């Protein structure tokens, strides 16, 4: 049987899953291998529509480091100049431009592989690339209309495949952001009205949409939409198998975001919820994850979605997935999907294919879901960014290993009996850590790390030093390396607040610093150089990637009884925070200074079995270059303690 496909300028896209020849896609083909450990990787999350359109010149080089200069009709966007370009765009039109498509492409992303490689990035996490509902403003990629195609705004399937191949050649792996919980706004409820969840009731549907907002002219049941004029490729939902009415829960939009089972069965705003299968629904089942997993029965749609994402591994040689909205899916559905994808990836030689789940609800919940589902890691989009950011800004405790409290950043990684973990189980491979992100769940008026004050901008380097050298899989959000300062400073309005987190790197109509027509790929920026230097340090020293982690007591005097874990006083902590990474009898002491005005010298506890006193440790990195290579004494205080100097708003590493 000849596959039913439509010829596009650069691609042939299947209408049906059964038209895909998986054997032909994988046979006699060598796939890019997985890393030995994802803890060794530094991730970079970019919004494809906001990253690059390929028209930039100046300030960066190609994959070989050759500077790119202006080229008529090809490279016409110059580098941002802070002195003249800041605030140059009219704010109302600038903000309005940020609410829709801006123009980033796969080809533009490919042209920045050299920039990312020299930054020290080893894995790119790309926002969803799949075809969105026609006519929608879903530049973010989470409103999928065709799960087997790339959105034309971004490019083609072939361009995605070629990008992954080029990334691999540059030593960079590719993680795709994917969705199985929902599709875009692909059908209309009766009367094209908005319906809301109410006691699990299933609402009537008029039909699949021809385009975004259309009244639902395509039949919702009966023959597949393939037979209807105008349905392919811009209407309904694809592949064809998903057009079965039983694919959809049809229960209206969620209003009780923490109400069980509403948060599992309702639509994610206007995005239509997919029925992934059946599980116990009585009130007592909510906390009984084991019973919900054991009693789960997968739906046909879940089986189809698992095949869809097998296809993308086979077609484009993808290295990992970031799985969206895990909270809104049954744990049994997640486990079914994860098992199927892991097994397929292993069958083509990807033995450590990463599936990273967006799991809200705190670390304890994340660990429970990881255990129950087989997900490889959890995104710290809940309390981790908050604790990391505001520890560095001097407003949070770093933690205290001597208490059972879980209030500080370093508490999030502790092994203790409260988590029912073995004493030597560490979370470094199971939690992705980041400062900025694209959503900031739970925050009303949103801002990037540098967006709330000039003081915050001065603390960005120690924050990134903490992110890169403490436990977890570090992830840089695009633009942070250029100190993006997006912030929603409106009063009385929090709609579209996340737009301020999603400025364009390539300028376009919505550049950072309220600019337009100027790009930000500046390889000379001090934050870019800092990340590059620290990433190189982590590559050379395995302890900074995989080592056990200990928050250290510090003392200004070095007297035994004055050592303590620093804590805020009257809500402020402008002091030295020190931690050790220990791996195979080697110890590295890292420290940041959250005081922006004063260099500080303290004694920090180190492991006395590794560092006999008296002895010396060497500074191998400092934000004050003159300090690198200097040695510092180890005293017998508290068994062993190192004299550490940390520059104001600085970061140091000793070994």
Labels describing this entry:
655 residues; alpha/beta; TIM Barrel; eight-stranded parallel β-barrel
Describe the protein.
Helix 10 packs parallel to helix 11 and helix 15 runs parallel beside helix 16. The protein has two domains: 12-81 and 88-184 and 296-537, Glycosidases (TIM Barrel, Alpha-Beta Barrel); 547-654, Golgi alpha-mannosidase II (Immunoglobulin-like, Sandwich). A hairpin with a 5-residue loop joins strand 23 (631-635) and strand 24. Mean pLDDT is 93; it is low at 1-10 and 416-426. Helix content is 22%, strand content 17%. The chain is α/β, with parallel strands linked by helices. The relative contact order is 0.11. A nine-stranded antiparallel β-sheet has the order 17-19-20-25-22-23-24-21-18. Strands 3-4-7-12-13-14-15-16 form an eight-stranded parallel barrel. A two-stranded antiparallel ribbon has the order 1-2.
């Amino acid at each position: 049987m000849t596959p039913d496909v439509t010829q596009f300028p650069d691609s042939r896209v299947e209408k049906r899953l059964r038209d895909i020849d998986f054997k032909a896609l994988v046979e006699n083909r060598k796939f890019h291998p997985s890393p030995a450990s994802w803890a060794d990787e530094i991730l970079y999350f970019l919004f494809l529509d906001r990253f690059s359109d390929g028209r930039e010149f100046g300030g960066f080089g190609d994959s070989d480091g050759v500077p790119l200069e202006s080229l008529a009709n090809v490279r016409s966007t110059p580098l941002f100049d802070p002195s003249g370009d800041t605030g140059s765009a009219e704010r109302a039109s600038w903000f309005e431009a940020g609410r829709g498509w801006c123009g980033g492409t796969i080809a533009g992303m490919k042209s920045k592989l050299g920039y990312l490689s020299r930054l020290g990035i080893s894995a790119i996490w790309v926002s969803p690339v799949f075809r969105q509902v026609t006519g929608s403003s879903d530049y973010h990629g989470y409103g999928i209309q065709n799960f087997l195609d790339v959105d034309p705004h971004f490019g083609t399937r072939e361009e995605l495949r070629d990008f992954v191949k080029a990334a691999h050649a540059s030593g960079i792996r590719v993680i795709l952001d994917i969705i199985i919980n929902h599709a875009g706004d692909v059908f209309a409820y009766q009367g094209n009205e908005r319906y809301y969840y109410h006691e699990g009731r299933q609402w009537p549907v008029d039909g699949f949409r021809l385009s975004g907002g259309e009244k639902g002219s395509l039949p919702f049941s009966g023959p597949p939409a393939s037979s209807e004029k105008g349905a392919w490729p811009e209407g309904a939902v694809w592949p064809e198998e998903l057009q079965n009415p039983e694919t959809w829960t049809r229960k209206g939009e969620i209003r009780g975001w923490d109400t069980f089972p509403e948060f599992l069965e309702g639509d994610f705003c206007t995005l239509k919820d997919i029925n992934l299968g059946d599980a116990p629904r009585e009130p007592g089942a909510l906390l009984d994850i084991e019973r919900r997993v054991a009693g789960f029965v997968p739906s046909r749609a879940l089986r189809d979605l698992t095949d869809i994402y097998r296809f993308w591994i086979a077609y484009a040689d993808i290295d990992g997935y970031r799985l969206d909205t895990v909270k809104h899916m049954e744990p049994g559905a997640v486990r079914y999907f994860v098992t199927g994808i892991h097994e397929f990836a292993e069958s083509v030689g990807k033995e450590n294919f990463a599936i990273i789940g967006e799991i809200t609800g705190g670390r304890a919940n994340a660990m429970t879901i990881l255990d129950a589902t087989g997900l490889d890691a959890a995104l710290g989009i809940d309390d981790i960014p908050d604790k990391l950011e505001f520890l560095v800004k001097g407003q949070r405790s770093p933690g205290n290993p001597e208490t059972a409290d879980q209030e500080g950043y370093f508490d999030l990684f502790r092994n203790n009996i409260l988590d029912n973990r073995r004493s030597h189980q560490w979370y470094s491979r199971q939690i992705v850590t980041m400062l900025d992100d694209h959503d900031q769940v739970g925050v009303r008026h949103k801002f990037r790390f540098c967006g709330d004050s000039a003081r915050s901008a001065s603390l960005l380097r120690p924050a990134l030093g903490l992110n890169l050298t403490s436990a977890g899989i570090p992830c840089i959000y695009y633009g942070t390396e250029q100190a993006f300062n997006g912030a929603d400073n409106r009063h009385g309005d929090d709609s579209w607040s996340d737009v301020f987190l999603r400025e364009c790197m390539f300028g376009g109509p919505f550049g950072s610093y309220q600019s337009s027509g100027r790009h930000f790929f500046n390889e000379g920026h001090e934050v870019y150089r800092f990340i590059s230097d620290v990433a190189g340090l982590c590559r050379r020293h395995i302890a900074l990637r995989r080592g056990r982690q200990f928050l250290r007591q510090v003392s200004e005097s070095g007297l035994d009884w004055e050592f303590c874990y620093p804590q805020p006083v009257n809500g402020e902590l402008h002091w030295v925070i020190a931690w050790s990474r220990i791996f195979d009898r080697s110890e590295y002491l890292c420290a940041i200074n959250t005081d922006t005005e004063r260099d500080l010298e303290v004694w920090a506890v180190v492991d006395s079995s590794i560092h006999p006193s008296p002895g010396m440790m060497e500074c191998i990195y400092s934000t004050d270059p003159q300090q690198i290579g200097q040695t510092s004494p180890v005293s017998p205080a508290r068994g062993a303690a190192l004299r550490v100097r940390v520059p104001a708003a600085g970061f140091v590493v000793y070994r």
